[in-house]
Amino acid sequence: MNKWTKLALIAACGTASLPSLAEEQISIGGAIGYSQYVYKDYDNLVLPIPMVSYESDNFYVRGISAGYYLIKNKQHSLALDITYSPRQFDPDDTGDRQLKLLNRRHSTAMVGVRYRFSSYWGQITTAAHMDALDESDGGVMADANYGYRFKWNQALTLIPAVGVEWHNDKFNNYYYGVSQREAVASGLNAFESDSGFLPYVNLTANYQITPELTTSLALRYTWEPSEIADSPMVERDGIFSTYFTVTYKM
């Protein structure tokens, strides 16, 4: 797995928790992240990454996502969105003898829409994307989450969130399925995945050192459904990830 794909994998863990900036603002910084892999005999990942965010009335860039606003106000936003999906499987990166005989699964770009609703009782974010590069032959994924911002004191803010992802059968089967040809070559059982839901919980803590300088710590756990966990490629039924960032508002 090349360095930049690994960087994007960690960035993906934190993208959902990045705060929306005020109009015409740029934030830069760095992060260190940790993520488990769902595949058998993959090393856990610990890497430093750069962080860049930009927000205007019309455009945004947040980590590995970028978009164009169709609607934007204090309560609603609707945007056309493109994001990099770092999911991939490289047989050279596993220590499992059988998995080394499988085909590679590539990362891809996802295009779709992202909607946010904000109120005094919290924020709901939803998104739906399709595989723009067609690596998964029609893969689709969607996400919905609810978070609430607690102002602990003048410096510390806590944002617990719960959510769920949905992957269609083509998306899951591309990354976790084992074809008959692969089964013959590797000795694994053939496996065809269906669509499935991946619930998750997330907790983000933001600490404002100065008006410009902020640190963040995010923790996330995602449960893998049987449509993924039952794959002979997979050894986990859940994934833990975390990241720590320091950002400076320009």
From TrEMBL:
<keyword id="KW-0472">Membrane</keyword>
<keyword id="KW-0732">Signal</keyword>
<protein>
    <submittedName>
        <fullName>MipA/OmpV family protein</fullName>
    </submittedName>
</protein>
<dbReference type="InterPro" id="IPR010583">
    <property type="entry name" value="MipA"/>
</dbReference>
<dbReference type="InterPro" id="IPR011250">
    <property type="entry name" value="OMP/PagP_B-barrel"/>
</dbReference>
<keyword id="KW-0998">Cell outer membrane</keyword>
<dbReference type="Pfam" id="PF06629">
    <property type="entry name" value="MipA"/>
</dbReference>
<comment type="similarity">
    <text>Belongs to the MipA/OmpV family.</text>
</comment>
<feature type="signal peptide">
    <location>
        <begin position="1"/>
        <end position="22"/>
    </location>
</feature>
